[in-house]
Design brief:
Strand content: 25-35%
GO cellular component, one term: plasma membrane
GO molecular function: ATP binding; ATP hydrolysis activity
Distance between the termini: 30 Å
Order of helices and strands: EEEHEEHEHHHEHEHEEHH
Family: Belongs to the ABC transporter superfamily.
Membrane topology: Peripheral membrane protein
Number of strands: 10
Helix content: 25-40%
Keywords: ATP-binding, Cell inner membrane, Cell membrane, Membrane, Nucleotide-binding, Transport
C-alpha cells in the first residue's frame, strides 16, 4: 500500500506558570513516529490526558509542534526547521472533524456558506462550480441538495455531523482525522455515521485516523491501533493483535475494561 503520511520526531512541550500554592504543570508529548498508508484506518486510544487529542491537533495543524517533521505524500507538510513549509504546502491534504460538530458551525450562516468557505479559500473554482460541488458532496454524505439553504438549528445532531464530514472531504484530502467523532451520537446515528465514513473511505481512498474511547468501534473498523500514555506511544500493532495479546499494562487494562462489557462468546 502507498504511504500517504510519515511523522518523525514530533514533539510538544508545555509548562504552565506556577500559581499560588500550586506547582507548575508540565506536559510533554513525543517524540512521536508513525506512518499511515492510503485507505488505512488507525485508531488512537488511551486514558484521559494521555496526549491523544493533542497529537491529533498537531497532525491537523491546530497546534504547532516544537520539533519534528510531518510529510504528506512526498511533500513536507510541516518541519520545525522550516516553519514556512506548511504555509506553502497543500494545507487541505489533512482535514479534521470534531466530536461536537455544532460548535464548529456558525449559526448565523447557511450550510452552503459554511461549506463554501474552504473551497473559496483553497481553490480557483467559480461560484457555480463551488455550488455544484457542495450540492454533490451533501448527497455523498447522505443529505439533500436542499440542505444547502438550511441553518444549524434546523439540523439534527446526526445531520450536523454529516455537514462537518462534508466540509472535511470537500477539498479531497488524503488524510481525515477525527477526535471522538461518534461519542455525541445516539447508537443508531453512530452506526450510520461509521458505515458512511467506511463507504467514503473506500470510494476516496482516504486514510482515517480517529480517537475513540469506544473500543467496540475501534475493533470493528480499525486496521491498526496506537496506544498512548503520558504523551508517548506505548504500544501499536494490528487491531486483533492488540485486542488478543496486549503487552503493556495500560493496554491490558483498556482491553480488560472493554471485554468486561461484552458477552464472552464474542471474544472467541
Amino acid at each position: 500500500m502507498k504511504q500517504v503520511l510519515d511523522v518523525s520526531g514530533l514533539t510538544f512541550r508545555h509548562s504552565s506558570k506556577k500559581r499560588w500554592l500550586k506547582k507548575p504543570e508540565i506536559f510533554s508529548l513525543g517524540p512521536i513516529d508513525m506512518q499511515v498508508t492510503k485507505g488505512e484506518t488507525i485508531a488512537i486510544i488511551g486514558q484521559n490526558r494521555s496526549g491523544k487529542s493533542l497529537l491529533a491537533k498537531m497532525l491537523a495543524g491546530a497546534v504547532e509542534p516544537d520539533e519534528g517533521n510531518i510529510h504528506l505524500m512526498e511533500e513536507k507538510y510541516w518541519s520545525v526547521r522550516h516553519r514556512a513549509a506548511r504555509k506553502n504546502a497543500d494545507i487541505t491534504g489533512i482535514r479534521m472533524i470534531f466530536q461536537h460538530s455544532s460548535e464548529s458551525m456558525n449559526p448565523g450562516i447557511t450550510v452552503g456558506q459554511i461549506l463554501d468557505e474552504p473551497l473559496r479559500l483553497n481553490t480557483g473554482l467559480s461560484d457555480a462550480e463551488r455550488k455544484a460541488l457542495i450540492a454533490d458532496t451533501l448527497v455523498k454524505v447522505g443529505l439533500l441538495r436542499e440542505h444547502i439553504y438550511f441553518y444549524r438549528h434546523m439540523l439534527s445532531d446526526g445531520q450536523q455531523q454529516r455537514v462537518a464530514l462534508a466540509r472535511a472531504i470537500l477539498p479531497e484530502p488524503k488524510v481525515l482525522i477525527a477526535d471522538e467523532p461518534f461519542a455525541a451520537l445516539d447508537p443508531t446515528i453512530r452506526s450510520q455515521t461509521v458505515n458512511l465514513i467506511l463507504k467514503l473511505q473506500q470510494e476516496m481512498g482516504l486514510a482515517f485516523i480517529f480517537i475513540s474511547h469506544n473500543l467496540g468501534i475501534v475493533r470493528h473498523i480499525a486496521d491498526r491501533v496506537i496506544v498512548m500514555d503520558g504523551g508517548q506511544i506505548i504500544e501499536s500493532g494490528k487491531t486483533e493483535t492488540i485486542f488478543r495479546w496486549p503487552q503493556h499494562e495500560t493496554t491490558k487494562k483498556l482491553v480488560l475494561s472493554y471485554q468486561s462489557l461484552i458477552p464472552q462468546q464474542t471474544l472467541r
